């Protein structure tokens, strides 16, 4: 049943995206535009693999998993603010998880890499791949689980 709901929701999302007759390609709509060669120079190998090649880091590998102090998670490529610690929750998946992004922080796309449609989450500023969003998040807040790669983000603690 859960799977069926997910399918219905994702195909609805897919249709609503298609009906918007987007003229620009996915890459063209981001304010920050760089070539893959430029990104390769600026990013570490791990960052490039996640952000530009849509890779996934090993679970429990990111130090950002354990961050509980107040602050902002920013894009590792362009420093765009993405998430706040107050929206982080313990998902047990081994990837930093949030129930909602900062307003205008992220951009949604879809991918079928695993043979079914997943809602992909990209940085709204540079288009870098961050992770995916699922509908099994905390019910008491948004019900969403933004499953992020720590390699795609940096953490800026709030200054007191
Ligand atoms: Zn970015």
From TrEMBL:
Residues 1-21 form the signal peptide. GO terms for biological process: protein repair; response to oxidative stress. InterPro entries: Met_Sox_Rdtase_MsrB, Met_Sox_Rdtase_MsrB_dom, Mss4-like_sf. GO terms for cellular component: cytoplasm. It catalyses: L-methionyl-[protein] + [thioredoxin]-disulfide + H2O = L-methionyl-(R)-S-oxide-[protein] + [thioredoxin]-dithiol. Keywords: Oxidoreductase, Signal. One of its GO terms (molecular function) is peptide-methionine (R)-S-oxide reductase activity. The keyword tRNA-binding does not apply. Coiled coil: none annotated. It is an enzyme of class 1 (oxidoreductase). Its EC number is 1.8.4.12. Pfam families: SelR. This is peptide-methionine (R)-S-oxide reductase. The lineage of its organism: Bacteria, Pseudomonadati, Bacteroidota, Flavobacteriia, Flavobacteriales.
């Amino acid at each position: 049943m859960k799977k069926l709901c997910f399918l219905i929701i994702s195909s609805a999302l897919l249709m609503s995206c298609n009906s918007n007759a987007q003229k620009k390609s996915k890459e063209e709509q981001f304010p920050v535009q760089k070539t893959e060669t430029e990104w390769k120079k600026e990013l570490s190998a791990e960052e490039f693999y996640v952000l530009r090649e849509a890779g996934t880091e090993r679970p429990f590998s990111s130090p950002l998993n354990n961050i509980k102090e107040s602050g902002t998670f920013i894009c590792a490529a362009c420093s765009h603010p993405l998430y706040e610690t107050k929206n982080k929750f313990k998902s047990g998946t081994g990837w930093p998880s949030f129930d909602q992004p900062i307003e205008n922080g992220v951009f949604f796309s879809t991918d079928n890499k695993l043979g079914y449609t997943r809602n992909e989450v990209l940085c709204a500023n540079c288009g870098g791949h961050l992770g995916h969003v699922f509908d099994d998040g905390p019910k008491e807040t948004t019900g969403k689980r933004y499953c992020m790669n720590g390699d795609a983000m940096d953490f800026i603690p709030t200054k007191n």
